[in-house]
Description:
Distance between the termini: 11 Å
Strand content: 25-35%
Oligomer: single chain
Mean pLDDT: 87
Structural class: alpha+beta
Radius of gyration: 17 Å
Helix content: 10-25%
Number of helices: 5
Largest sheet: 6 strands, mixed
Number of domains: 1
Number of strands: 6
Order of helices and strands: HEHEHEEEEHH
Amino acid sequence: MRHDTAVVIAQIQVPADTTEVTQIEALLDPIDITSMVVTADAAHPSSGTAAYLRQRSADYVFTVKGNRPALLAAITDRLPAATAATSAHTDTERRSGHRITRTIWIAAATGIDFPGVAVVFRLRRDVYAPDGQRVSKQIVHGITSLTSTAAEIAAHVRTHWWIENKIH
């Protein structure tokens, strides 16, 4: 799905004997992804996928969770403490009476053995009810080949979820 238009531009059937992770090349081979940013959830941050995207002159933004423990540890080791003073960008929006605050911390990915990685990040999303009580807190970590600003990286992570919210 293109993030700018929420239009699906490619779709394939995943064979029963595999998972979507193995189908990235089959999905993207027919598309000119030169200079595009490909986002993917925590199932996809593999060296093979990153190398494939970089060879095709595309960038990536991947979230990373516990299914990649060594990579997640390398990311968290490089990030500053999660305080307001060390954050790189914060934005706040109001939706349905709730206040949603997103804060991102970034650091250079120096020393991480992953194709094309430039920056690591931590993104925290706090949701507050109309009475000011926090109702949820979510923290995700990730890697990107982009050297963009923290605000731009956060925007890529946010618009990635449009496939769940706008398409499904």
